[in-house]
Write a structure and sequence with these properties.
With 428 residues, this protein is of the alpha/beta class. The chain folds into two domains: 117 residues, Urease, subunit C, domain 1 (Roll), CATH 2.30.40.10; 287 residues, Metal-dependent hydrolases (TIM Barrel, Alpha-Beta Barrel). The protein is built from 14 helices and 17 strands. The longest helix is centred in the first third of the chain and has 17 residues. Helix 2 crosses helix 3 and helix 12 crosses helix 13. It binds zinc ion. Zinc ion binds next to loops.
Length: 428
């Protein structure tokens, strides 16, 4: 049964500080009209609509985009902390192979509610059983970019060929309103050249992105070097002709400058996962300034609740930003605008979705309001808005969330979420 919130065809947001993220990066005080899932106008005019949100000086931002997670692993929150990376991976693989469909669905739905509650309107997922996760996407009302993971057949618990499973999933969910299916790839430690090239071919045939892990840990890179006569993973992927603009790589921590350049040259995009990388003690920071200098689009991912414990992009923005400054002994090496770009326009470009990531007429209506009546955001104006979003705001500041024109969170209340639905639910 759809809630009232979901049924309005037009919505007027009155009197907000609008962080447009348009090409001039304008921040203005005004109104937004949403009609039939699209932004119709951004400006000063007063318009009639089915419903009005009195923003009263709240900050309006484009919905945040989380470009790497495994949402079905939300139930692992707090269960894999403070152990070695080796033990973490061992336990994760074991837990992943023992899942039921009900567990995957409930865990995913809970993770999606957490994301919506935290101002995330789109996320990129990497997992198997994506058709189950897709059902949770429809139920929650979030936008899900779901990448069915492929890997070598002898390394998976998936029934049948992962590439065929991915193809079936993409065919079944084409033209869905909120589910955007694509091809996933686990990483060089689990997928050989045949799978990589098969994934690329499938993405071209179905016109989707390819999303997968790349150079996350030093161990995976060293193992690869030993098995490939000193050739590094990203160099190898370039040699076999895999690197291409459809590829959204997660992590990219242990790439050399040469590999960073290969990524830029081939139009590969990067999902940076600073909180997960640091919490797992990966031992280094992705060379973000070098990626940006070489034309790689950088966005922000949370990774799973096993290694991050939240799916909060606000934490990713602040922690990532201050980590780069500290790592390079230079507070000016990045700035709040560049970091907000990562969570909005860069992420949209990485997904080949220019209709997302900014608040402009004609774009899809994915809009988040941050409450300036909270102590931590009080006194925010058009000048300080971007800095305050990146360095001061947290998920508790998110008061209203609109996805595709539907008001999913209103004045602090997440319309469809009921904690009782999860109390006795199966999560494994
Ligand atoms: Zn991951």
């Amino acid at each position: 049964m759809l809630n009232n919130y979901w049924c309005v065809s037009s919505l007027f947001i009155h009197d907000a500080i609008i962080v447009t993220q348009n090409s001039a990066r304008e921040v203005l005080r005004g109104n937004i009209l949403v009609r039939d899932g699209k932004i119709e106008s951004v400006g000063k005019e007063h318009m009639d609509a089915d419903s009005t949100v009195e923003a009263g000086g709240k900050i309006a931002i484009p919905g945040l985009i989380n470009t790497h997670c495994h949402v079905a692993m939300t139930h692992l929150r707090g269960k894999l902390d403070d152990i070695s990376l080796e033990k973490f991976l061992e336990r994760t693989f074991k837990l992943d192979s023992e899942r039921s469909n009900a567990g995957i669905y409930n865990s995913s739905l809970l993770g999606m509610y957490e994301m919506l509650d935290s101002g995330i309107t789109s996320f990129v997922d990497l997992y198997y059983s994506e058709e189950v996760i897709a059902k949770a996407v429809r139920e929650s009302g979030i936008r899900g970019f779901l990448s069915w993971v492929t890997l070598d057949e002898d390394k998976t618990t998936q029934k049948g060929s992962p590439l065929k499973n991915a193809e079936r999933f993409i065919s079944n969910f084409r033209n869905d309103e909120l589910v955007i299916p694509s091809v996933g790839i686990q990483g060089v430690y689990a997928a050989g050249d045949e799978v990589y090239l098969g994934a690329k071919e499938l993405a071209e045939k179905k016109d989707t992105i390819i999303h997968g892990h790349l150079a996350e840990t030093r161990e995976e890179v060293y193992n690869f070097l030993n098995q490939h006569n000193g050739v590094r993973p990203t160099e190898h992927l370039e040699k076999i002709g895999f690197l291409n603009p459809r590829f959204l790589a997660a992590h990219g921590v242990w790439n050399t400058l040469h590999e960073v350049r290969l990524m830029g040259k081939n139009g590969v995009k990067l999902s940076w996962n600073p909180v997960s990388n640091a919490k797992l003690g990966i031992g280094g920071m992705a060379p973000v300034p070098e990626y940006l200098a070489n034309g790689v689009s950088v966005s922000i991912g949370s990774d799973s609740c096993g290694s991050n414990n939240t799916q909060d992009v606000f934490q990713g923005m602040k922690f990532g930003s201050i980590w780069v400054k500290s790592d390079r002994w230079n507070p000016a090496i990045t700035n709040a605008q560049a970091i907000l770009d990562m969570a909005t326009v860069n992420a949209a470009a990485s997904l080949n979705r220019p209709d997302l990531g900014s608040l402009e007429p004609g774009k899809s209506a994915d809009i988040v309001l941050l409450d300036t009546r909270t102590p931590r955001l009080m006194l925010t104006d058009e000048i300080t808005a971007v800095s305050n979003i990146v360095y001061s705001a947290d998920a508790s500041c998110v008061s209203d969330v609109i996805v595709n024109g539907r008001l999913i969170k209103s004045d602090g209340h997440l319309a469809k979420f009921n904690s009782k639905d999860f109390q006795d639910a199966e999560f494994v």
